[in-house]
Amino acid sequence: MKKLSAGKIIFRYALLAGVCVLIFWFSSNNGENSTSQSSRVVDLICRIFFPDMDQTEPARQLALIDILSVCVRKAAHLSVYMLLGALSFAAFFPVRRKGVRMLMAVLFTFVYACTDEIHQIFVPDRTGKISDVIIDTFGGTVGAAAVLILVVVIDAARIIRENEKLKATETEKS
């Protein structure tokens, strides 16, 4: 395995820290600001996929908006923690055993998700939810697994190329 330069190591940890700061910033928004952010996304979805929503009865509109709001909020959790899991796996590169590295990335994501939900308890109009920790940890697991698969495929391709070169060299010598 080739050694990473100090710049690449710093870059990996800076990206990881940046995503942690981003998550902390989102969690620091009070309930009104957080709802406003997701409402903008829900409004965009409604305009694109439900252009005739204004003609729908109000009770159905509210039901659809409520469902979309939950989906948007949970998708946001899932996606940002997928990124956190992927970057965690990449940042913990000194751990050579990929399974241990994967476990460390998932554990890091889980611990950060727990601290994030505890943080939200202290933010006005926000709550900490165990269900969000589960979604966050799942997202982190998916992100770390995606990078793990990518690393395994790249390693396998490298080994195949090296074996082909070795065979070609042996054939030329014969």
Give the SSE layout.
Blueprint: H1 6-28, H2 31-49, H3 58-91, H4 98-121, H5 130-173
Helix pairs in contact: 1-3, 1-4, 2-3, 3-4, 3-5, 4-5
What would your notes on this structure say?
It contains five helices and no strands. The chain is mainly α and about 170 residues long. The chain starts with 5 loop residues before the first helix and ends with a helix.
Topology, number of strands: 0
Sheet-strand content, in percent, reads under 5%
Largest sheet: none
Cα shape: elongated
Which sequence of SSEs, written as H and E, runs from N to C?
HHHHH
Helix content estimate = over 70%
**Alpha carbon gap, first and last residue:** 30 Å
Which parts are unreliable, with pLDDT below 50 for 5 consecutive residues or more? none
Using only C-alpha atoms, the radius of gyration works out to: 22 Å
- Average per-residue pLDDT, rounded, comes to 93
| Total of DSSP H or I helical runs spanning 4+ residues | 5
Which structural class fits the helix and strand makeup? mainly alpha
Overview features:
174 residues; mainly alpha; 5 helices; 83% helix; 0% strand
Concise description?
It is built from five helices and no strands.
